[in-house]
Fold:
Amino acid sequence: MEKILPIAQSIVAILLIVFVLVQQRGTALGSAFGGEGGGFYATRRGIQKKIFWATIVCGALFIILALLNLII
Structure:
């Protein structure tokens, strides 16, 4: 069990990074630097909604695994 938790936490961390990077926010790279379209937020549909929820689940799972890693 001691060797499984760090491996599982590493896998979840990699998935969390991928899900955060894949999410679309803004229209282009210029929006990251304060460009046009700063206040426009559309509703999530389809795959965007699934990626959003997968990010939340991976984040919660990462926190749970980190706490379990401290306890055990």
User: Anything to note?
Assistant: DSSP finds two helices and no strands in the chain. Residues 47-71 form the longest helix (25 residues).
